[in-house]
Design brief:
The chain is mostly helical. The protein is built from six helices and no strands. It has one domain. 66% of the residues lie in helices and 0% in strands. The mean pLDDT is 87.
Length: 175
């Protein structure tokens, strides 16, 4: 399957995504508080509702970014293991997959399945990831349908999942 993917090096570190989320949350909370000069401009009876809405949208935006970063980590790892021709079972499975699908391998069907089959990463963690990616698909496609997710996703649950993924999976880094 021809040429290698050129890595941009522009993916955000986990802590930067989290710090950005916290900065926006703090800014919004201050903006809609009694100490802000903007508070008197807004009708008081709408302020709490507006704040909740803005914070919810910030959560969704950060969830989307966190899950995109998780996908990037899996795809980079998949390609690095393929390019570096490592000898472990997962790398061999990725090379075979790459022979068939190249860089267009499906994250959920191909890459996560290989992790589940060829490593000791807990199957529950992979299942949790698949569920979170269904939520991300719903966000990415405009939220126009009622999703059947099996659980509720919020910033805290996705933060914990993302943190667990980055600690649990022995990803290869971009070189």
């Amino acid at each position: 399957m021809g040429s290698q993917v050129a890595f941009s090096g522009l993916h955000l570190p986990f802590d930067e995504m989290v710090n950005h989320h916290q900065d926006v949350e703090s800014s919004l909370t201050h903006y809609f508080s009694h100490v802000s000069h903007q508070y008197t401009i807004h009708l008081e009876r709408y302020s709490k509702e507006k704040l909740r809405f803005r914070l919810s949208e910030n959560d969704k935006s950060t969830i989307f970014t966190l899950l995109a970063a998780v996908e990037a980590a899996f795809r980079i790892d998949y390609l690095q293991r393929t390019y570096q021709r490592k000898k472990d079972k997962l790398s061999k499975a990725f090379r075979a997959l790459h022979q068939q699908k190249g860089s267009r391998a499906s994250l959920e069907e191909d890459i996560l399945s290989a992790w589940k089959e060829h490593t000791s990463v807990p199957a529950k963690l992979i299942g949790d990831l698949r569920g979170a990616f269904k939520y991300r698909h719903w966000l990415a496609h405009g939220r126009y349908w009622t999703p059947k997710l099996g659980q509720k996703y919020d910033y805290d649950s996705v933060y914990e999942l993302t943190e667990t993924v980055f600690k649990s999976f022995p990803f290869m880094s971009v070189r």
